[in-house]
Design brief:
globular; two-stranded parallel ribbon; YbaK protein; two-stranded antiparallel sheet
Length: 79
């Protein structure tokens, strides 16, 4: 089950400080999953390693550059 990483563990595990966590340029062995909801967008603006940098990518570009393990649906349905 997906869960948020603890703030104090973020940089050590992922390789970027909180606020700049990006889906690429991360520590070896970290698996990246992309949320299905992203497929409804033409492009996204992921962080690039610092809290004030980003890059615009199409969804196919994000999928390729992140070397993602796969797609998941983390959306919660509210009753």
């Amino acid at each position: 089950k997906a869960k948020m990483i603890k703030l104090e563990e973020c940089e050590q595990i992922i390789g970027h400080a909180p606020g700049g966590v990006c889906p690429f340029g991360i520590n070896e062995g970290v698996k990246v999953y992309l949320d299905e909801s992203l497929k409804s967008m033409d492009s996204v603006l992921p962080a690039c390693g610092t809290s004030d940098t980003g890059i615009e990518l199409t969804i196919p570009e994000l999928e390729k550059s992140s070397c993602c393990t796969g797609w998941v649906d983390i959306t919660k349905t509210l009753d």
